[in-house]
Specification:
- With 191 residues, the protein is mostly beta strands.
- An 8-stranded antiparallel beta barrel has the order 1-3-4-5-6-8-9-10.
- Helix content is 9%, strand content 65%.
Length: 191
């Protein structure tokens, strides 16, 4: 994990020396669940949060590369027989997105994401149990997003869908992460 963070910092620093780079911070809400053929029928979305930092590295007038470092509270909710069990999965996600920037302020972005499982807990009737051993430590997904940065302002809004590409249980189950994110961001410095 330390090596990946160091790589992120070095790559961003190198890119900053070569082109125009803006840095920012972001935060928002997650609607997370699991998808795939092994998903239980009584599963629904779990509310969570995401918070992180990013670099927006300009490559051309309307195209940039956007690496991010994001904490993401994901998981799922199972309801049945008058009770609810929540699977709380916390990830440190590292997406690297290609971003098209329209001069009007609208943008679209897409790219791969690797997630590192920080914790996994089952919460049921006020009790909590560690489940980290039952999930894979690395998750691969593909991100699709859109957003808008206010004209003459450093504040913007975005929405993203993270499509799980790899099964996350340690057993043979084919369940994958499925996360909808909405949030706000702030870009430091001049626009």
């Amino acid at each position: 994990m330390k090596k990946l963070f160091l790589f992120f910092v070095c790559a961003t620093s190198f890119a900053a020396a070569q082109s125009q780079v803006q840095f920012g911070a972001k935060a928002g809400l997650n609607l997370a669940s699991l998808s795939g053929e092994d998903k239980p029928d009584d599963m629904s979305m779990k509310l969570g949060l995401n918070v992180g930092v990013f670099a927006d590295i300009s490559v051309a007038e309307t195209f940039s590369v956007k690496p991010e470092l994001v904490y993401s509270s994901q998981g799922y909710k199972l309801s049945g027989e008058g009770s609810t069990m929540r699977g709380a999965l916390s990830y440190i996600n590292l997406p690297v997105l290609g971003k098209y920037n329209d001069p009007s302020g609208f943008f679209a972005e897409t790219g791969p994401q690797v997630g590192f499982l920080a914790s996994a807990k089952a919460k049921y009737d006020g009790n909590s149990a560690d489940m980290k051993e039952t999930f894979k430590s690395i998750d691969f997904s593909w991100a699709f997003g859109v957003g808008y940065q206010l004209p003459e302002n450093n504040i913007g809004f975005n929405a993203r869908y993270n499509l799980g590409l790899s099964a996350i249980p340690e057993n043979d189950a084919k369940a994958k992460n499925s996360v909808i994110q909405v949030g706000v961001f702030y870009v430091f410095g001049e626009k």
